[in-house]
Each structure stands twice: as structure tokens, then as C-alpha cells.
């Protein structure tokens, strides 16, 4: 039986990856320090013989007994308010954490895939963003802690590949959404849906003309699975190229939720990228992958998930 270690297992994407690899018949070892994740995302796996959970901070030495065939390194705060709140941990998990996991992959002779991000392109001057674009990142701005940690992560991963011959894969994930996002993580989808459910106005930052392109979680997981199984070493964008302005998106959420609230405008966060849309030609060509779930379908499922949460979750203040 193949064995896979998934870091960030109790988080949004990590927990869906655990489900997928269990379904594929793997022995899954989940690892997480629960700093932004929620154990309830993987509780349903605890009774399985082929699932183990390690409560561990990957910036500390990582040890896993027995063989490992694959490692997916997904541990990292991912929402802007999370990484602005814990900037040093964010830098450490992308750098020291990645170093630890590359070392483990080398020791076990395992293939490792690391979770990079569209944030490596920063506030992009090229649109849509293809993997060839080097990016436009403000190293010393508040978002730099995340962006530069991820850029370092890509560099050290390629160095392990080139210097040690390690089998490495790099996925550049674009805004992904779906059930198990944290209601209060500040990202735009839980923020808007939470506001609609609480009967609050929807907070659009800036004038709402900035764009994003949202990818549903099952499409993201499929892209990651295919990349891990491929023999392609350079980074690959996985995201949905269907772009929308945040202002229009707020209107879509007002329609979806039937709320009678309105949009209010707040200050745009520093270095908030004005445009983002993946060029997915590479994923199409190499992985024969493209997204299947359109925004209407994905948002309905996501809204149903948030609606099903206990009311006290809705009013829990984190920040
Ligand atoms: P998330 O916050 O839901 O999950 C991250 C998980 O990592 C959490 O469970 C957290 O507790 C864990 N973690 C953080 N630091 C850790 C540490 N030092 N040791 C052990 N565990 C630690 O976020 P997510 O949206 O699921 O993101 C997962 C990964 O995908 C991240 O690496 C993120 O950078 C990347 N990514 C996500 C998106 C997206 O749209 N969701 C976009 C680009 C990249
Ligand atoms: N945003 C917003 N209102 C909110 C939360 C976010 O207008 O309550 C905007 C944010 O400024 C950004 C976009 O929505 O332009 C996406 O933000 P998110 O935090 O989801 O992810 P990002 O792509 O910026 O990492």
C-alpha cells in the first residue's frame, strides 16, 4: 500500500486531499499544528485503519516512521488576515518547514509536491499570468511574508531537485473555494457569505474593480492529483480562468443568498493585487486538466455548507 504524508491536513485544501487519497486506496498520514486549521475537517477519518494524524509544527524537525512514497506540503497560513497576524510563522513554515520536508523526502526517497501560489506573481504586470512570468512582489510590504516565503519555497525545492535529484512537483494554486473554508478567515468568499448570513452589509475593499478567478475545490484537488502523478518538474498553475471583479462578485452573492443587505466600501489593503487570472495552457497540455465546476454550481455548494454550520460559528469573532 502506498503511503502519503499530507501537511496542513486539517486545513481547507489539505483535508480534501486527505479524503481524495483515502479514496484512492492510500495510507494517509495527516500532519498539522492546527494554527489556522480545524480538526473537525478530518475527524471523519480518525476511525480508519489507513489514516494517522500527527499534531506537529513542521517548522520543527519532522519524523515519520516507515516508508513514505509521497509528500504533499500544504501547511501554511493562506488567508491575508491569517498571515498578517502571524507573519513570522508564515515565513518559517514556507522556509524552515519546506526545508524539513525536503529533507524527509530525501531520506525516504519520496516524491514531494509543494503548494505554491498565484501570490508569487504579486501584483502582476502581465495578464493572464503564465508560469513564465517572474512576478511583481513588494518584498518589504505586509504581504511579502507570504509571497517571499512561497518564492523561497519554490527555489529550495528546485535546488533539492537539481542538487539531490529529488523528485519534486510545484503547484501554483489560484484562489480556491468550497466547503471547509473557515468562516472567519477573512477571505472574500467566507467574508461575503458570513456577512449575508449575519444580515450585515457586504464589505468590498477598494472600488471593487480588482479581479479574481475562483476555482472550486474538487477541480483543484484533481489538478493537484494529476500533477503529482505526472513527471513534470517545473511549476504549474492550477486555477479557474473565469475572471470577475470583486464588485460584481458581491452582487452575485447578494443574489445567491437573497440578502437585503447592500455593498459598503472599505479601504483596499496594501499591495492587494489589482488583477488575477491564471493562464492554464500548461495544465491543459501536460495534465489534460481543466476546471469542470462553474461558479454558480460551486458557490451554491459552498453557500449550502456555510448555511449548515451551527449558528454560534457564524458569530464567532477571531480577529
Ligand atoms: P488553511 O489555513 O485552511 O490550511 C493550512 C493548514 O496548515 C492549517 O490546517 C494550519 O493549521 C496548517 N499549518 C500552518 N502552519 C503550520 C505549521 N507550521 N505546522 C503544521 N501545520 C501548519 O489554508 P488552505 O487554503 O487550505 O491552504 C493550504 C495551502 O495551499 C497553503 O500552503 C496555501 O499557501 C496554499 N494555497 C491556497 C490557496 C487557496 O485559495 N486556498 C491559494 C494559493 C495557495
Ligand atoms: N475582499 C473584499 N472584501 C472582503 C474580503 C476581501 O473586497 O471582505 C477583496 C480583497 O481586497 C481582494 C479580493 O477580495 O481584492 C480577494 O481577497 P481574498 O482575501 O479572498 O484573497 P487574495 O486573492 O487577496 O489572496
Q: What this model shows, in words?
A:
This protein has helices at 12-23, 80-85, 87-108, 144-164, 188-198, 217-229, 246-257, 281-287, 295-308, 311-314, and strands spanning 3-7, 27-32, 51-55, 70-73, 111-117, 168-173, 176-177, 202-205, 211-213, 215-216, 236-238, 243-245, 263-266. The protein is α/β, with parallel strands linked by helices. The protein has a domain at 3-177 and 215-238: 3-Layer(aba) Sandwich (Rossmann fold), CATH 3.40.50. The strands form four sheets. It has a seven-stranded parallel β-sheet, with helices on both faces. Helix 4 links the parallel strand 5 (111-117) and strand 6 (168-173). Helix 1 packs across helix 6 (217-229). The chain is globular, with a radius of gyration of 19 Å. The model has no long low-confidence stretch (mean pLDDT 97).
Share of helical residues: 25-40%
Tell me, what is the CATH class of the domain at 3-177 and 215-238?
Answer: Alpha Beta
CATH topology assignment of the domain at 3-177 and 215-238: Rossmann fold
The main sheet orders its strands as 3-2-1-4-5-6-11
Shape-level CATH architecture of the domain at 3-177 and 215-238: 3-Layer(aba) Sandwich
What is the residue-mean pLDDT, rounded to a whole number? 97
Number of strands: 13
Order of helices and strands: EHEEEHHEHEEHEEEHEEHEHHH
End-to-end separation: 43 Å
What assembly state would you assign to the polypeptide chains in this entry? single chain
Q: What low-confidence regions span 5 or more consecutive residues with pLDDT below 50?
A: none
Largest sheet: 7 strands, parallel
Strand content: 15-25%
Count of runs of 4 or more consecutive helical residues: 10
Dominant shape: globular
Amino acid at each position: 500500500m502506498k503511503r502519503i504524508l499530507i501537511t496542513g491536513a486539517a486545513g481547507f485544501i489539505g483535508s480534501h486531499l486527505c479524503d481524495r487519497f483515502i479514496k484512492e486506496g492510500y495510507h494517509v498520514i495527516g500532519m498539522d499544528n492546527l494554527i489556522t486549521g480545524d480538526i473537525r475537517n478530518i475527524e471523519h477519518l480518525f476511525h480508519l485503519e489507513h489514516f494517522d494524524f500527527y499534531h506537529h509544527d513542521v517548522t520543527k524537525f519532522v519524523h515519520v516512521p516507515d516508508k513514505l512514497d509521497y509528500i504533499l506540503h500544504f501547511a501554511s497560513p493562506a488567508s491575508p488576515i491569517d498571515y498578517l497576524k502571524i507573519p513570522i510563522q508564515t515565513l518559517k513554515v514556507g522556509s524552515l518547514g519546506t526545508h524539513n520536508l525536503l529533507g524527509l523526502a530525501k531520506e525516504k526517497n519520496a516524491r514531494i509536491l509543494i503548494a505554491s501560489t498565484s501570490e508569487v506573481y504579486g501584483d502582476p504586470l502581465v495578464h493572464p499570468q503564465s508560469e513564465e512570468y517572474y512576478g511583481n512582489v513588494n518584498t518589504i510590504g505586509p504581504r511579502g511574508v507570504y509571497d517571499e516565503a512561497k518564492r523561497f519555497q519554490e527555489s529550495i525545492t528546485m535546488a533539492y531537485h537539481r542538487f539531490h535529484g529529488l523528485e519534486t512537483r510545484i503547484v501554483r494554486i489560484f484562489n480556491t473555494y468550497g466547503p471547509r473554508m473557515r468562516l472567519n478567515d477573512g477571505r472574500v468568499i467566507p467574508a461575503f457569505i458570513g456577512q449575508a448570513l449575519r444580515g450585515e452589509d457586504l464589505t468590498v475593499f477598494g472600488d471593487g474593480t480588482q479581479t479574481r478567478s475562483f476555482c472550486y475545490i474538487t477541480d483543484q484537488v484533481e489538478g493537484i492529483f494529476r500533477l503529482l502523478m505526472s513527471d513534470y518538474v517545473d511549476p504549474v498553475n492550477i486555477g479557474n480562468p473565469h475572471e470577475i471583479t470583486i464588485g460584481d462578485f458581491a452582487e452575485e452573492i447578494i443574489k445567491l443568498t437573497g440578502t437585503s443587505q447592500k455593498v459598503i466600501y472599505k479601504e483596499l489593503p496594501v499591495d492587494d493585487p489589482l488583477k488575477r487570472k491564471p493562464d492554464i495552457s500548461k495544465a491543459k497540455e501536460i495534465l489534460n486538466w481543466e476546471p469542470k465546476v462553474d461558479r454558480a454550481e460551486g458557490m451554491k455548494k459552498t453557500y449550502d455548507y456555510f448555511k449548515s454550520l451551527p449558528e454560534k460559528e457564524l458569530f464567532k469573532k477571531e480577529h
